[in-house]
Design brief:
Strand order of the largest sheet: 4-10-9-8-7-5-6
Number of helices: 16
CATH topology of the largest domain: Aspartate Aminotransferase, domain 2
Bound molecules: pyridoxal-5'-phosphate
Radius of gyration: 22 Å
Number of strands: 17
Distance between the termini: 50 Å
CATH architecture of the largest domain: 3-Layer(aba) Sandwich
Length: 427
């Protein structure tokens, strides 16, 4: 475990945060897209490239044994991190997109038929829309959508009305990458399960900001990317309920996912390897072990309280300062948008994470982003892979700032000062 007592000590673990861009200290606020990497992850990747670099599960030699131990060790770390019952539940993929495609392809080949329906949430990332559309096209099925209310929360009444015996799977966002509100996934799961319908949760943002216990959540699938939670790019996870994974056909065929192969017939390896064809990105996957250990150490003890206090300050400050800017619309403020609404428990459904998307009248998002970049502030703009949600709010682009525990309140202040400068330059 890592011992860190302050945000500065956390920052000290991330070499990339110390750099300057355009001669200005970097203020990295594009964490919703990918996180920077702590030294422990960089060291593990280096160590493997310089030493334990051999294909996993394949050879009877020391290097392969070492690489396999690190790869399988990371699987155990993932299992513990999300409290999955067994290693069989943990499939390594290249990221959330690959995890959802795996389920959309394999589950739907087995369980989706003509006239069936799939429910997705209206705040879905394209990777939680397009794979299901492809499966629906193949099967002659259709997609139904949980509407998003003006404050960014789901219309649960409408969701209840969509659930019926034609629905074969529900696939929803744990936290939208545009709105940053913790969604009521547990409630969705309870309603869906009452009808015998399995639920996939897109945890690309959720895994980073919430403590995830898949048994407590009772989800059937949970998909996430390693690169958003400090691990190397190319790592990802699909958690699946074992009974379902056993029934699903393999996704890709190739090495490592087989038991015996003849030209007439192939039998498949047991879980989880049945879904891990070919050489995996074993170094990136192995980096999930130090990455998740690092993430875990930020969620325990005094440092967890320090982070929560800083994030609460950042959220309150950004909400107020953004709304003070003339012509600024902030999307999906959730409970904060409702006069007199009670704040949910920190991290519980309805609560906000330090992620804000907005538009400012008279300023193109891409112009704002370019000017902010020149001031050292990295933000995200565009559709954010959520075109239907953009359409829902009647826009084609937004600006997004997203924070991680290594970001400081001072950075939030610097962002607001820089934003004012950028707006003055554009108006
Ligand atoms: N889902 C959500 C909510 C995301 O934020 C992202 C990435 O931004 C994805 C899915 C896709 O993740 P990846 O590109 O790592 O597969």
């Amino acid at each position: 475990m890592y011992s860190m007592n302050s945000i500065d000590e956390i920052r000290g673990q991330f070499p990339a945060l110390g750099q300057k861009v355009w001669g200005k200290p970097l203020v990295y606020l594009d964490n919703g897209a990918t996180s920077q990497k702590p030294q422990c992850v960089i060291d593990l990747v280096d160590k493997m490239h310089c030493g334990a670099n051999a294909n996993v599960h394949r050879a009877m030699h020391k290097l392969s044994d070492d690489a396999t131990a690190l790869y399988e060790g990371a699987r155990e770390k993932v299992r513990q991190f999300i409290n999955a019952p067994a290693r069989e539940n943990i499939i390594f993929t290249s990221g959330t997109t690959a995890s959802i495609n795996l389920v959309a392809s394999s589950f739907c080949r087995r369980f989706l038929g003509e006239g069936d329906e799939i429910i997705v949430s209206g705040d879905s990332h394209h990777s939680n829309i397009v794979p299901w559309q492809m499966a629906c096209e193949a099967a002659g099925a259709s997609i139904k959508v949980i509407p998003v209310l003006e404050n960014g929360m789901w219309d649960m009444e409408a969701f209840r009305g969509l659930v019926g015996n034609k629905v074969k799977i529900v696939a929803v966002e744990h936290i939208s990458n545009v709105l940053g509100i913790v969604n009521p996934v547990k409630e969705v799961i309870e309603v869906a399960h009452a009808h015998g319908i399995p639920v996939l949760v897109d945890g690309a943002q959720g895994i980073v900001h919430c403590k995830v216990d898949v048994q407590e959540m009772d989800c059937d699938f949970y998909a996430f990317s390693g690169h958003k939670i400090y691990a190397a790019t190319g790592s990802g996870v699909l958690y699946g309920r074992q009974e379902l994974l056993e029934k699903m056909p393999p996704y890709m065929g190739g090495g490592d996912m087989v038991d015996t192969v003849t030209f007439g017939k192939t039998t498949y390896a047991p879980l989880p390897l049945k879904f891990e064809a070919g050489t995996p990105n074993f170094i990136a996957q192995a980096s999930l072990a130090p990455a998740l250990e690092f993430a875990q150490s930020l969620r325990e003890g005094e440092i967890a309280r320090v982070i929560e206090a800083e994030e609460r300050k950042i959220i309150a400050y950004l909400k107020e300062e953004l709304q003070k800017i003339e012509g600024c619309t902030v999307y999906g403020l959730g409970w904060m948008q409702q006069e007199g609404a009670q704040e949910p428990v920190w991290g519980a459904p309805g609560s906000k994470i330090p992620l804000f998307s907005f538009n400012i009248e008279g300023c193109f998002p891409s112009d704002l982003a370019q000017l902010l970049d020149k001031m050292g502030v990295a933000v995200r703009t565009g559709l954010m892979c959520c075109e239907p949600l953009m359409t829902r709010f009647g826009v084609t682009s937004m600006v997004r700032v997203s924070f991680l525990p290594y970001n400081t309140f001072a950075e939030a202040e610097h962002f607001i000062t820089s934003l004012h400068r950028a707006v003055r330059m554009l108006r």
